[in-house]
Known about the structure:
Elements: H1 2-11, E1 17-18, H2 20-27, H3 31-43, E2 47-52, E3 55-63, H4 65-85, H5 91-107, E4 117-118, E5 121-122
Helix pairs in contact: 1-4, 2-3
Amino acid sequence: MDYGVLNALLSVGEPYELRPMDLRERLLLTSGGTSNVLNRLVKAGLLTRQQDASDGRSSWVRLSDTGLHLAEEVVASWTQAQRDFFRDVPADASRTASDALRQILVCLGDLEPPVPQRAGVPVATDGRPCRDAS
Protein backbone atom coordinates (compact mmCIF):
# COMPACT_ATOMS: atom_id res chain seq x y z
CA MET A 1 0.00 0.00 0.00
CA ASP A 2 2.98 2.30 0.51
CA TYR A 3 3.56 2.36 -3.25
CA GLY A 4 -0.14 3.17 -3.78
CA VAL A 5 0.18 6.29 -1.64
CA LEU A 6 3.39 7.41 -3.34
CA ASN A 7 1.90 6.77 -6.78
CA ALA A 8 -1.37 8.57 -5.95
CA LEU A 9 0.55 11.66 -4.81
CA LEU A 10 2.83 11.53 -7.85
CA SER A 11 -0.17 11.21 -10.18
CA VAL A 12 -1.79 14.48 -9.03
CA GLY A 13 1.25 16.51 -10.09
CA GLU A 14 2.95 19.36 -8.30
CA PRO A 15 2.89 20.03 -5.42
CA TYR A 16 2.22 16.26 -5.05
CA GLU A 17 -0.19 16.63 -2.17
CA LEU A 18 -3.61 15.35 -1.14
CA ARG A 19 -5.64 15.22 2.04
CA PRO A 20 -5.54 11.89 3.88
CA MET A 21 -9.28 11.56 3.17
CA ASP A 22 -8.62 11.86 -0.58
CA LEU A 23 -5.94 9.16 -0.37
CA ARG A 24 -8.29 6.92 1.61
CA GLU A 25 -10.96 7.25 -1.10
CA ARG A 26 -8.53 6.69 -3.97
CA LEU A 27 -6.91 3.64 -2.39
CA LEU A 28 -10.02 2.17 -0.73
CA LEU A 29 -8.41 2.11 2.71
CA THR A 30 -9.95 2.43 6.14
CA SER A 31 -9.12 5.58 8.07
CA GLY A 32 -6.96 3.51 10.43
CA GLY A 33 -5.15 1.86 7.53
CA THR A 34 -4.55 5.23 5.94
CA SER A 35 -3.13 6.63 9.18
CA ASN A 36 -0.80 3.66 9.58
CA VAL A 37 0.57 3.94 6.04
CA LEU A 38 0.97 7.72 6.25
CA ASN A 39 2.70 7.55 9.63
CA ARG A 40 5.11 4.93 8.30
CA LEU A 41 5.92 6.99 5.19
CA VAL A 42 6.37 10.20 7.20
CA LYS A 43 8.72 8.38 9.59
CA ALA A 44 10.68 7.07 6.57
CA GLY A 45 11.07 10.65 5.29
CA LEU A 46 9.04 10.01 2.13
CA LEU A 47 6.11 12.29 3.06
CA THR A 48 5.53 15.48 4.98
CA ARG A 49 2.33 16.63 6.68
CA GLN A 50 1.08 20.19 6.80
CA GLN A 51 -1.95 21.47 8.70
CA ASP A 52 -4.64 22.99 6.49
CA ALA A 53 -4.50 26.72 7.19
CA SER A 54 -8.23 27.11 6.56
CA ASP A 55 -9.36 24.04 8.52
CA GLY A 56 -7.40 23.10 11.63
CA ARG A 57 -9.05 19.67 11.70
CA SER A 58 -7.54 18.71 8.35
CA SER A 59 -4.05 18.32 6.95
CA TRP A 60 -2.29 17.83 3.65
CA VAL A 61 0.18 15.07 2.88
CA ARG A 62 2.95 15.84 0.39
CA LEU A 63 5.76 13.86 -1.18
CA SER A 64 9.13 14.91 0.22
CA ASP A 65 12.02 15.30 -2.24
CA THR A 66 13.15 11.79 -1.27
CA GLY A 67 9.61 10.44 -1.70
CA LEU A 68 9.27 12.09 -5.10
CA HIS A 69 12.57 10.63 -6.26
CA LEU A 70 11.63 7.15 -5.03
CA ALA A 71 8.13 7.32 -6.58
CA GLU A 72 9.59 8.34 -9.95
CA GLU A 73 12.14 5.51 -9.81
CA VAL A 74 9.48 2.93 -8.97
CA VAL A 75 7.16 4.13 -11.75
CA ALA A 76 10.02 3.98 -14.26
CA SER A 77 10.95 0.46 -13.13
CA TRP A 78 7.33 -0.73 -13.20
CA THR A 79 6.79 0.79 -16.66
CA GLN A 80 9.88 -0.98 -17.99
CA ALA A 81 8.77 -4.29 -16.43
CA GLN A 82 5.39 -3.95 -18.18
CA ARG A 83 7.08 -3.18 -21.50
CA ASP A 84 9.29 -6.25 -21.11
CA PHE A 85 6.36 -8.48 -20.17
CA PHE A 86 4.14 -7.34 -23.05
CA ARG A 87 6.83 -6.80 -25.69
CA ASP A 88 5.55 -9.64 -27.92
CA VAL A 89 1.94 -8.39 -27.91
CA PRO A 90 1.16 -6.46 -31.10
CA ALA A 91 0.35 -2.77 -30.50
CA ASP A 92 -3.11 -3.09 -32.10
CA ALA A 93 -4.04 -6.02 -29.82
CA SER A 94 -2.78 -4.14 -26.78
CA ARG A 95 -4.77 -1.01 -27.71
CA THR A 96 -7.93 -3.06 -28.37
CA ALA A 97 -7.62 -4.86 -25.03
CA SER A 98 -6.97 -1.60 -23.19
CA ASP A 99 -10.00 0.08 -24.78
CA ALA A 100 -12.22 -2.91 -23.94
CA LEU A 101 -11.06 -2.95 -20.31
CA ARG A 102 -11.62 0.80 -20.01
CA GLN A 103 -15.17 0.38 -21.36
CA ILE A 104 -15.87 -2.43 -18.87
CA LEU A 105 -14.61 -0.31 -15.97
CA VAL A 106 -16.78 2.64 -17.01
CA CYS A 107 -19.82 0.33 -17.30
CA LEU A 108 -19.09 -0.88 -13.77
CA GLY A 109 -19.12 2.71 -12.55
CA ASP A 110 -15.38 3.38 -12.40
CA LEU A 111 -14.89 7.13 -12.41
CA GLU A 112 -12.06 9.44 -11.60
CA PRO A 113 -11.67 10.08 -7.86
CA PRO A 114 -13.18 13.32 -6.56
CA VAL A 115 -11.18 16.46 -7.26
CA PRO A 116 -9.21 17.48 -4.17
CA GLN A 117 -10.09 20.85 -2.70
CA ARG A 118 -8.23 23.34 -0.57
CA ALA A 119 -10.35 25.74 1.49
CA GLY A 120 -13.43 24.64 -0.47
CA VAL A 121 -11.84 25.51 -3.84
CA PRO A 122 -11.13 22.68 -6.34
CA VAL A 123 -7.41 22.14 -6.84
CA ALA A 124 -6.05 21.41 -10.32
CA THR A 125 -3.72 18.48 -10.92
CA ASP A 126 -0.82 20.91 -10.72
CA GLY A 127 -1.98 21.91 -7.21
CA ARG A 128 -3.21 25.38 -8.16
CA PRO A 129 -6.81 26.40 -7.47
CA CYS A 130 -9.07 25.80 -10.49
CA ARG A 131 -10.18 28.99 -12.19
CA ASP A 132 -13.76 29.79 -13.07
CA ALA A 133 -14.53 29.34 -16.75
CA SER A 134 -16.49 32.62 -16.65
